[in-house]
């Protein structure tokens, strides 16, 4: 089973500094709260949805616990200072996935994303495992049937596994299969992947599908400008961009709270400039953060890192209507 629920107001709490000044605001004071079934009432540019699921992680033999992530990430964001972009966010709740009903839940999330996008709203989804990406991605493809959709995935893993059932390791293989069925191009760029964490079978599959890969060992500071240029060139070939961020792309000492902490990783000081480059493009329509696992984040370091990443994304994201460029 799966069920939608609005976010408990107790999640959006923080320090109140209004006695100091009327503009001493924090995100919990500027985020709007809406209802998942009242999309026509939304005026904000970015719609936040939670996907409380880790069934895909379990199926992929990972460490369960990511189902608790959406509210943990909201809490990490809530107390940060509110600046440009943070008051343009509305939280419409979370889809809770129960039992083994992953595929039905993915369809439910996909339909909600499609509806938001068709109303001209961007979507920010808080997973959940990376099975979130198949649902989010399908919502984007279905919202823009004539567009060249580009997927930018910051991730230690290519997530191109073949499996008889959806898992956290299959989302981009599933999206590639969908594109093939619909005779649509599959544009996928994976940044920060670890060759040590991807078998030759997965690398070969990426080559077969024409996937662009930037390995973690090529994301050091001296090559950052070159990586940014590659990302820009990828975006220019697409009409609508879906950005998905698997938090296990970060090194384990910055992000311990994931199913598979990275030994090398793409550190936050290099990640944020690359994300900023993506966010300045008005073709960016959708973002998600996945794989955060509060159960393994004993000192809340990972939550703070993830909260800062969400904060920065919202601050840098240039929200413009996807007009004629989407049908080129």
UniProtKB/TrEMBL annotation:
A Gene Ontology molecular function term of the record: agmatinase activity
Listed cofactors: Mn(2+)
Keyword Nucleus assigned: no
The organism's place on the tree of life at top rank: Bacteria
Reaction(s) the record says it catalyses: N-formimidoyl-L-glutamate + H2O = formamide + L-glutamate
Pathway it works in: Amino-acid degradation; L-histidine degradation into L-glutamate; L-glutamate from N-formimidoyl-L-glutamate (hydrolase route): step 1/1
Cofactor binding remark: Binds 2 manganese ions per subunit.
Protein name: Formimidoylglutamase
Native organism taxonomy: Bacteria, Pseudomonadati, Pseudomonadota, Gammaproteobacteria, Enterobacterales
Gene symbol of the encoding locus: hutG
């Amino acid at each position: 089973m799966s069920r939608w629920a609005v976010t408990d107001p107790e999640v959006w709490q923080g320090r109140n500094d209004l006695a100091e000044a009327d503009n001493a605001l924090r995100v919990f004071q500027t985020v709007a709260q809406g209802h998942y079934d009242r999309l026509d009432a939304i005026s904000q540019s970015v719609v936040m949805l939670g996907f409380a699921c880790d069934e895909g992680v379990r199926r992929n033999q990972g460490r369960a616990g990511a189902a608790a992530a959406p509210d943990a990430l909201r809490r990490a964001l809530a107390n940060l200072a509110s600046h440009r972009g943070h008051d343009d966010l509305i939280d419409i709740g979370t889809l809770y996935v129960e039992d083994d009903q992953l595929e039905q839940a993915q369809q439910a999330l996909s339909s909600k994303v499609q509806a938001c996008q068709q109303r001209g709203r961007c979507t920010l989804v808080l997973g959940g495992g990376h099975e979130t990406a198949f649902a989010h991605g399908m919502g984007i493809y279905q919202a823009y049937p004539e567009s060249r959709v580009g997927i930018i995935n910051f991730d230690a893993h290519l997530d191109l596994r073949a499996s008889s059932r959806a898992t956290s390791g299959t989302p981009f293989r599933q999206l590639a299969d969908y594109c093939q069925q619909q005779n649509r191009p599959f544009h996928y760029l994976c940044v920060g992947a670890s060759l040590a964490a991807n078998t030759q079978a997965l690398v070969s599959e990426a080559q077969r599908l024409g996937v662009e890969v930037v390995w973690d060992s090529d994301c050091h500071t001296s090559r950052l400008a070159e990586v940014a240029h590659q990302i820009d060139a990828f975006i220019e070939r697409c009409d609508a961009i879906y950005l998905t961020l698997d938090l296990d792309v970060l090194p384990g000492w910055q992000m311990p709270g994931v199913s598979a902490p990275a030994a090398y990783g793409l550190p936050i000081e290099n990640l944020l400039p690359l994300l900023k480059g993506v966010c300045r493009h008005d073709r960016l329509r959708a973002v998600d953060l996945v794989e955060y696992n509060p159960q393994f984040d004993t000192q809340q370091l990972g939550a703070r890192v993830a909260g800062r990443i969400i904060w920065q994304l919202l601050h840098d994201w240039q929200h413009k209507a996807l007009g004629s460029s989407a049908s080129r």
